[in-house]
Amino acid sequence: MEPFQTVEGGAAAMPAANIDTDVIMPKQFLKGIDRKGLARGVFFDLRFDEAGGPRETFVLNQPPWTEARFLVVGPNFGCGSSREHAVWGLAQLGIRALIGTSFAGIFFDNCARNGLLAITLPADEIETLLALAADPATCRFTIDLAEQVIEGAGRQLRFEIDASRKHALLNGLDPVGVTLARADEIRAFEAAHLAANPWLAPAAAP
Amino acid sequence: MTPPRTLYDKLVDAHTVARLDEDGSTVLLYVDRSVLNEYTSPQAFTGLREAGRQVWAPERLLGVVDHVNATTPTRTAEMPDPGGAGQVAYFARNCRDFGIELFDILHPMQGIEHVVAPELGLILPGMVVAAGDSHTTTYGAFGALGFGIGTSDIEHMLATATVVYRRLAPMQVVVDGRLPLGVTAKDVVMALIETIGADGATGCAIEFTGQTIADLSVEGRMTLCNMAVECGARGALIAPDQTVLDYLKPLARAPKGDAWTAAADAWTKLKADPEAVYARRVVLQAEAIEPMVTWGTSPDQAASVRARTPNPETEASPARRRDVARALDYMGLQPGALLEEIRIDRAFIGSCTNARIEDLREAAAVLQGRQVAEGVRAMVVPGSSAVRRQAEAEGLDRIFLNAGFEWRQSGCSMCLAMNDDVLAPGERCASSTNRNFEGRQGAGGRTHLMSPAMVAAAAVFGRITDVRRLGA
Prior knowledge:
The complex is a heterodimer. Chain A has helices at residues 21-24, 44-47, 85-92, 105-112, 123-133, 163-171, 175-180, 183-196, and strands at 6-14, 70-73, 97-100, 117-120, 140-144, 149-152, 155-158. The mean pLDDT of chain A is 95. Chain A is globular and about 60 Å long. Chain A is built from eight helices and seven strands. In chain A, β6 (149-152) and β7 form a beta hairpin. By secondary structure, chain A is α/β, with parallel strands linked by helices. Chain A has one domain: Aconitase, domain 4. Chain B has three domains: 7-166 and 242-251, Aconitase, domain 3 (2-Layer Sandwich); 169-240 and 272-288, Aconitase, Domain 2 (3-Layer(aba) Sandwich); 337-470, Aconitase, domain 3. Helices cover 32% and strands 17% of the residues of chain B. Chain B has a five-stranded parallel β-sheet. In chain B, α6 (185-196) packs parallel to α8 (218-227) and α12 packs across α14. The chains are: A alpha/beta, B alpha/beta.
């Protein structure tokens, strides 16, 4: 996964509440067996009209936000379906970080597994960032993950992040490889767990 | 002395392989069982193949084709589109190569994963079940910690039998009293979501307690825990009781003999300590809950069937005014409109929320001797092939067919419309499903969530109708 260290770029404002993963990545883009080709599907019904042309009213179709690398979003962004395609698509569209008051749990984890930084801030600070992002003159931010700081228009906002999540993002770690290094620990746990709960061993198909 | 713990804390503690940070807020969590489907698993298997990794415990996994298959009344292996066909073929190859049991489309036990796994007895109290579908919270009905994960975490779980897990805040939801006639578990969970909001339990695991919960059947409990994810909960638990034990005992894959005796004894003790502290507590009174209907495009945009759509102008904040106005505009509704005057084009009974045998019985009771209104297309998609057979044995299929419903094969179907069961733009559907998002049942489609009996009533009258008017 691509490490996240310091990233600079434009931020777009998407303040609506409860933008769900069906809206982020509609069903017709879920039929693949690989992660490719999902950039076009992102916000498809918001970005494109019935004829497939860009909707001029949608923020990511308006310069300078066509080049946005960050989204400042409304509460509960990414709610609904577990589909990781939503995160793959956002990353493929060039989005590196999302900043909002709250994210749905599965979506939040999916972001972390794909180098997409999801930052949670209090509502008043999100209001500030939404206002900065909505103005072409102030919509460029720099996010420094090591220092846990967002900088924009001369302001600095500090954010919190779990230590383990920060470490994985900064270094672009392969989490499966990291966990498999603990395979002996898992085996020892498993043996004790199954001994204490013998009914967990699966019954054979009748 | 250890401090009193919630049921959630006990399950997480019992499955913690290692703490991953100093305060124990992130742990390596052991996963007892999982169910895989054809649409969220392919990239996980590809990841394993590319890294040359094995599946840790394939005998504890079940693959079920459910999301992309057709539900035409006569079962066919034909997929509605090449993409879905490719997913089903790759899924079969992955299950074969990695030694995982598969219920493919022609298997007699095929169905929606969250209907199939419980009906087999694969989900047991005290388990941790992580699976690539958000409605894995369903398993809380058995006192199992079920939660949805993305595809990267499926790959992690397949390779290591664990997930990297952030501890949630335990939240207690008490539902006390007796549900009025015509009010179901679906209405309870819709009332909860309406009360606390679509992010009201974000970062939380819910424990449901109270007399109303104790009185619910296991199927009602599954409906309740299933939709807990729609208020953001990533886990919903009900402590197992005699109702759960009675439900599990005869199931094919449940423990038998001495193993059953030992398990049942352990499960009876599986509950929160009396003094356990919750981060948050919400209390609902059953008698105050009415049949619920959504009017908007988020599951919390819901109201009693007797209510009216809201007026954006009277909402407190500019953000709420904007969200309500946008939802009404998408739904093609006026502010202040009576919900019972909204006409429908389609009626859908199906999904992992409400397509079990009890749901079909409740809908059939409404439809007995009645007809679907002119101009309404109505369909039933049973939650599993076993549910379908059971319903046929009880003669429910005849009731649905005589009323003018289509009697279809099992699958996720028009809950998320990944197959060819789709709303046309502008079509309005009374639906027993779980999400009324924009475009969820088809681009431009308009979804009103409600209980299966309420869907049946809407189908008969051609408009949203309080099922209590029928004396149900």
